[in-house]
Amino acid sequence: MVGRLLERRYRIGARVARGGMASVYEATDIRLDRTVAVKIMHPGLGDDQEFAERFVREARAAARLNHPHVVGVYDQGDDTSDGQDTVFLVMEYVPGHTLRDVVRKEAPMPPRRALALLEPVVSALGAAHRAGLIHRDVKPENVLIADEAHGGRIKVADFGLAKAVSADTQHTATGGVLIGTVSYLAPELVVDGRADARADVYAAGVVLYELLTGRKPHEGESPIQVAYRHVHHDVPMPSLLQPGIPDYVDALVARSTSRDRDQRPADATVLLHHLHRVEQALREGLDSDPELAADLLPRRALTVDTSDTEEPGEDTTPEPFDAGALALLTEVDPRDSGLVDDGSPDRTTALERHPVPMRTPSEAPVTEPMKAVVPVAVAATASHPATTTQAVRPAPGRTPGTPSGKAPSKVAPVATTARRRSRKGPLALLLAIVLVAGIGAGAWWFGWERYTTTPAVLGLDEAAASAELESSGLEAEPGEPAYSENVEAGLVIATDPEPGGKVLDGGTVTLVLSLGPERYDVPQLAGQTEDQAQDALAATNLTFGESVGRWSETVPEGQVVRTSPKAGTTLKPGATVDLVLSRGRKPIEVRDWTGKSFDTASQALEKRGLAVAVTDESYSDTVPEGAVISQDPTSGTLFRGDTVSFSVSLGPELVEVPQVKAMGVEAATELLEGLGFRVETEQADIYLGIGYVSSSDPGAGDEVPKGSTITLFVV
């Protein structure tokens, strides 16, 4: 893509980011002469109508927002100049870094700093919510921070998952695929795929937790485990990791990340109001504000005690965890996802650390968290009619036995005839007993007796685990190995069925062996282009950091000189690798040394890596000996190893003065002028007037520059 001109307007430059659906390039709008960011869908995806429509939807959604903390969208297009559809967005270019870089360098950070970074983000989300949009992918990577030269403004980017809020468009799961970033997904998105403004509020609360602690609230070995914790575990209090955090900051995190979305702020505008209240308390230097904390903390939902009122067979199963949708996203079989409660106690919740006063129906204050039991009237029913008469509690004001409280009248006795006992009853009872016994025996056999309990072989090597299984009458089968940070390579980290599970006698147990900690070597990227190097890093589960330009005499411009860390270094997945890119050969500016000392010029040029050559040495009446008469080139740009040629002066040409003593003046003058001298005559001390030369100055045999003046003394 680099160098292409999209729609005869946008000149594509270096790639600055790469995502799963598109790449972002720095580009120049040649029509308006400004730098922009162009987001280009990956080749081939433009042919997918669904992806193309999502791209167009992003442009329209973001274009509706005019806010100083939202990355603006300028244009959207589809270029077909190369024979294939290139779908792209043109956005505001924000030179700088992301909030993720700030988290890496500064977190954990003081609450005031964290709230100062989060406030523009919440403000931007508030504008989106007021416009009927939800972002649905709030995370530090989507928060851009301009460098100081461009004002340091914070902007929210990538409304690629944004969608107008309506009754028909509140699902983020399409065809079973969950859309979003798992570390910031609200619980309701995992359970039923429904998203509204409160899902953005939850993600903003998770970002605040990460800024305060430097860690994500829920972590796991797989995305599914992280999502499971979002559904079943509260976000812990930041003060558990950073004890100096005030209670009202804890309360703000708890309120925004409540698993019950009804307990969260209704949208980002309401969250911004709460955030300003907390900022004010921080400015006042309050270490604690119980009243503000109690007001912010989510209220514990009333619990209805229905143990005596539930109808038989009533389904009280909680809403299911949608593991299937998330498994499709992460390409993990839900059966292998480990989505079972590990039995570990939940983390400390907000209400456990900061109990919230609740009100009784009479508004009497209660200082401890309480469980409200709602009384329910239950009609009394008789399980067995033991007698022919029953005592019934009379209604107030009425006389027992009468509908209206009147005195009872006499009742005539009723004659009854004894019924003959049927023989069918015992026979039916016997058949029922036999049937139940048969069913029980079958259930015992099919549900229990023919199964064996899977022995615990975790931590054993494959041979020992196989032997243990064989001793239990089971067969071992190697499964797909997996990485583990805690179990050495070659040892069993999981079995299917799991230890204690049931397996048919003689059945097979699949062993999952550890590959050891997941590590990746930095690939050899020297000589590759920046795009090729970024693709290679993505293929090895390493993260591209930044590119730094360096001059290189051997590596062509735009290719990788080296990596930092260097190639072959072993790193954890997701570790950052920076690229050192060649800027090409370093240019060397050449100055004009004409008239200057050749020795000085030669030393200066050779020190800068240039070669020096003397192509000519000649006499010069105007340039001193050893100085430069001329050079080639006289100016411009050269590169290391290039040659600068010089013509060096030998100084003026010297000519020996001939013997002219006793010669006639005219003959002597003709001889000297023929050698290039100028001639002057003077009378000798003894002048006789005979016209002969008695001596000269300079004298005979002296070497003087050509063109010098020779004085003849005449007698």
UniProtKB/TrEMBL annotation:
Key words, A-Z: ATP-binding, Kinase, Membrane, Nucleotide-binding, Serine/threonine-protein kinase, Transferase, Transmembrane, Transmembrane helix
Gene Ontology biological process: negative regulation of fatty acid biosynthetic process
Domain PASTA residues, every copy: 448-515, 516-583, 584-650, 651-715
UniProt biased composition (Acidic residues): 307-317
Disordered: annotated segments: 301-352, 384-419
Catalytic activity: L-threonyl-[protein] + ATP = O-phospho-L-threonyl-[protein] + ADP + H(+); L-seryl-[protein] + ATP = O-phospho-L-seryl-[protein] + ADP + H(+)
Membrane spanning residue stretches: 427-448
Protein kinase domain: residues covered: 10-276
UniProt xrefs under CDD domains: PASTA_pknB, STKc_PknB_like
Any one Gene Ontology molecular-function term assigned to this protein's record: ATP binding
EC number: 2.7.11.1
Primary enzyme class: transferase
Protein's recorded name: non-specific serine/threonine protein kinase
Organism: Nocardioides glacieisoli
